[in-house]
Amino acid sequence: MTRRGHRSRLDAPRLIAALLALLCLPITSHGAVLYDSWTTSSSPTGSYVVTVQHNEDTSTWDFVFTVDPWDAEGLGLFVDLGDFDLTDTPVMTGTSWEPYLTDGRITLYDTDADTKACGSGCNINGLNPPLADPDDEWEFIFRLGKRKYDGIQTFNFSVNDSALAGISDSDWGLIAVRGRHVCPSGSTHPDDEDDCDFNGDKAYATGAVVPDFDEVPVPGTCFLLGLGLVLLARTRTERAHGTNK
Phi-psi bin for 149: left (phi > 0), alpha (psi -120 to 50), beta? Predict the structure, then answer.
């Protein structure tokens, strides 16, 4: 065996290990704050899921408000960051909703406000969420959609992070939701929308930090890639060995 053939046999395991290490690293992003466990003043309540995630590329905090399963619609969202006052003028960007309707909308109704209102026909009166002392204010109040049935399941929007200077994932605290068109248990929008005509509900939740919110493990793919690389390296080594006999 020549020196070249011997080196090929030694390099093959190292090559396989290096490629697997690169290909099988989990795909991760920055953490997110997840709200999905609710205390409510009414029954039933919607299956609300809210995530807040910092986006370094756009210098924004990105919000996703959805209902999964789709058994209610969102009308108002209240966000409390404890004893904190906004540090800049909040600017909303990236607003969208799904399914998309021409009359859908997302607006920033109020900031740093001691109020239970989120617009016409929208409030959290009687909910009494435990706002942080001594601030007792909602840093953000968003109005989502209109009072009528809009057929919207998910709202997406962002706020400039300059308005939240010094805030990190762990600072996101209490939020409250004003929902409407809440379905009875077992029914969902839009197929059962005729049965989902309740006045609405009010609920609050405390966020949980999820460090690797977008982690996508791919063990099956790694196994197949590894097997393919092993077979390829073995074939090339055998050919080199046969050539240099």
Answer: beta
**The pLDDT value given to residue 54:** 96
Domain-wise residue ranges, the chain: 3-27+217-243, 32-210
The pTM assigned to this predicted structure is 0.75
Tokens 């919207």 belong to residue: 152
Q: At what angle do helices 219-243 and 3-23 cross, to 10 degrees?
A: 170
List pLDDT tens digits, range 39-85.
997 788 999 999 999 999 999 999 999 999 999 999 999 999 999 99
Residues 6+ apart with CB under 8 A from 221: 23, 24
Closest by Cα among 142, 168, 172, 140 to 155: 142
